[in-house]
Amino acid sequence: MNHRQGAGQVLRGRAFKFGDSISTDHIVPGRYAHLRSDLPELAKHVLEDADPTFASRVRAGDFVVAGNNFGLGSSREHAPIVIKLAGVSAVLAKSVARIFFRNAINVGLPVLICPTDGIGEGDELEVDLAAGTIYDRTKDLHLSFTPIPPVMLRILEEGGLVPYIKKYGDFKL
Q1: Which of 32, 83, 106, 136 sits at a 20 to 30 Å CA gap from 113?
Q2: CA neighbours closer than 13 Å in the CB half-sphere of residue 113
Q3: CATH class (in words) of the domain with range 10-168
Q4: What is the distance between the alpha carbons of residues 164 and 19, in angstroms, rounded to a whole number?
C-alpha cells in the first residue's frame, strides 16, 4: 500500500473492460470474507465474479474500465484496497457509487469519471491525473475526465488519507 500515484505522473497500462453495475460483491466475493486479514491473498480473487481471469492477467499499472454505477453495494472498504493491491493504477468509469469513490481516494486509488464506451479491452492507455486527460494509444482517442479536486490529488499523491494525515498531522484543505 505504499505505492504513490503522484499527481503529475502519467499512468500507463492496459484497459480491462467491465460493464455496468459491478458491485463490491463482484470486486470482493463474499465467499472470501475469511481472507480480509490477508489482503494480498484476497487480491488474488479481485473481480473474480465479473472476470475469473482478471487477477491472473492484470499487471502493475493496468486500468479497470467500467460502465455505470461501479462499486455499488455494501461499503466494503476492502474493494478498492484489493484493486490497488492487484496493481491497478486507476479505475475509469461512467459513474461510481459514492462510498466506493471515497474509499478509493482514501486508500490512494484514483477513480476517474469519464466516457468509457470508446475504450476497448486491452487498449493501451495513458492517464494524466493533473491534466484530466486520457489518451487511448491503441485507438488514437483523446478523452477527458471530471477533474479531481486539488485536495484529493494531494491525498492521492501521498498514497491515501492515512499517509497524508501522518505526513501533515491534520487534514488541510
Answers
A1: 32
A2: 14
A3: alpha beta
A4: 33
